[in-house]
């Protein structure tokens, strides 16, 4: 008989529930180590058909490690599973594992495509660089705020301009300089580390033909191209190019019940960071005035901006860009300025 297993994964321990023929035959705990878990599954459920667990911080590692051990692992969408697991009276890890095992047996779940380690490495590079840039911005704002208390207003400027402005203001205030200087040194060091990661990102973009192809679109830089390729991985993962817009949460939600039927804001599901990068790309497309960057896509977006406003037009253009980028990866063709709005 086939066996169905639910795993409630946490950082330290994993709760396990095994079902067969509509009944639970075993449940317990084991350390959150895929190799140990695979040994236990082979021992307790030699005929395992589905091993189900939710998306989470460890899901990529668990999926690839269990699959390499020959375990039929399936990662399912946590939001979908939680709506069912929340129906239990007592919320425990063991009960969650039972619920996941029941979902595995019934086949009532939404499987999630787990990214490869190479794709996750690219996403980690982008995320680490963004984190350092965010910290440097916070530090510069803190320096400005602390100096403002003493009537020292740092003029507008970034990078070396900011550094020189702060140093100039601190020359005549030795007491404050001893406090601000460590912050300024930390700010410089963080910017240096962010620049190092930025160079790694550019190297990765130059080595990939896919990212080079996407960067032919005006407004698409190395960060956006690398992030998009890492998220999509294989264009064949999507049946149609139009599906990418919905997958990234750039399509409107709909509510229909009886006589009520209306559309709302965009769903905002999927990759938040990539969605933000595509919105920035759309903003660049709509605000650039250079003649060499003219395209059907930009003309369409500008006409739409006149009717619905800038923000809604930018979201629509961002969705179009996501669709166009997928089509380009599938066909291997560079961006066509005359056909950009017809995809």
CA-CA gap between termini: 49 Å
Strands, total number: 7
> Structural class, from helix and strand content?
alpha/beta
Count of helical stretches: 13
Strand content: 5-15%
Q: How would a crystallographer describe the biggest sheet? A: 5 strands, mixed
| Overall domain count | 3
How much helix is in the residues?
55-70%
- Return the average pLDDT rounded to an integer: 91
Strand order of the largest sheet: 3-2-1-4-5
Shape: globular
H/E element sequence? EEEHEHEHHHHHHHHEEHHH
Low-confidence stretches: none
Name some characteristics of this structure:
globular, 14% strand, single chain, two-stranded antiparallel ribbon, 7 strands, five-stranded mixed sheet, alpha/beta
Task: Give an overview in words.
The chain has 343 residues and is α/β, with parallel strands linked by helices. The chain has 3 domains: 3-106, ATPase, nucleotide binding domain (Nucleotidyltransferase, domain 5, 2-Layer Sandwich), CATH 3.30.420; 117-207; 212-331, no CATH class. It is 57% helix and 14% strand. The chain is built from 13 helices and 7 strands. It has helices spanning 34-44, 59-68, 78-85, 93-106, 117-148, 160-170, 174-207, 209-214, 222-232, 242-247, 272-287, 296-308, 310-331, and strands at 3-9, 13-20, 23-31, 48-54, 73-76, 252-257, 260-266. α2 links the parallel β4 and β5 (73-76). α1 packs across α2 (59-68), α7 (174-207) crosses α9 (222-232) and α12 runs antiparallel to α13. The longest helix has 34 residues, at 174-207. The chain is globular, with a radius of gyration of 25 Å. The model has no long low-confidence stretch (mean pLDDT 91).
């Amino acid at each position: 008989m086939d066996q169905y297993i639910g795993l409630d994964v946490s950082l330290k321990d994993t709760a396990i529930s095994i079902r067969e023929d509509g009944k639970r035959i075993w449940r317990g705990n084991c350390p959150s180590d895929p190799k140990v878990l695979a040994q236990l599954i082979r021992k307790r459920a030699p005929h395992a058909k589905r091993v189900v667990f939710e998306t989470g911080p460890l899901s990529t590692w668990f999926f690839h490690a269990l699959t390499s051990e020959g375990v039929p692992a399936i990662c399912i969408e946590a939001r979908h599973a939680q709506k069912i697991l929340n129906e239990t009276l007592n919320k425990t890890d063991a009960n969650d594992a039972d619920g996941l095992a029941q979902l595995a047996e019934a086949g009532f779940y939404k499987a999630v495509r787990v990214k490869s380690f190479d794709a996750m490495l690219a996403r980690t590079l982008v995320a680490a660089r963004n984190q350092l840039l965010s910290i440097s911005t916070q530090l510069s704002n803190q320096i400005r705020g602390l100096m403002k208390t003493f009537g020292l207003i740092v003029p507008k400027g970034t990078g070396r301009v900011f550094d020189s402005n702060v140093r100039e203001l601190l020359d005549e205030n030795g007491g404050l300089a001893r406090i601000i200087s460590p912050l300024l040194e930390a700010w410089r060091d963080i910017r240096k580390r962010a620049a190092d990661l930025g160079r790694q990102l550019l190297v990765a973009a130059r080595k990939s033909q896919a990212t080079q192809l996407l960067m032919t679109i005006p407004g698409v830089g190395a960060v956006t191209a690398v992030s998009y390729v890492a998220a999509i991985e294989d264009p064949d993962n999507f049946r149609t190019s139009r599906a990418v817009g919905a997958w990234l949460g750039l399509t409107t939600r709909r509510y229909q019940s009886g006589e009520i039927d209306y559309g709302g804001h965009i769903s905002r599901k999927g990759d938040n960071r990539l969605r933000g990068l595509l919105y920035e790309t759309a903003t660049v497309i709509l605000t650039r005035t250079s003649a060499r960057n003219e395209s059907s896509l930009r003309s369409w977006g500008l006409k739409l901006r006149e009717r619905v406003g800038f923000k809604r037009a930018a979201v629509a253009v961002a969705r179009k860009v996501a669709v166009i980028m997928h089509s380009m990866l599938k066909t291997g063709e560079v961006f066509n300025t005359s056909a950009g709005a017809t995809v």
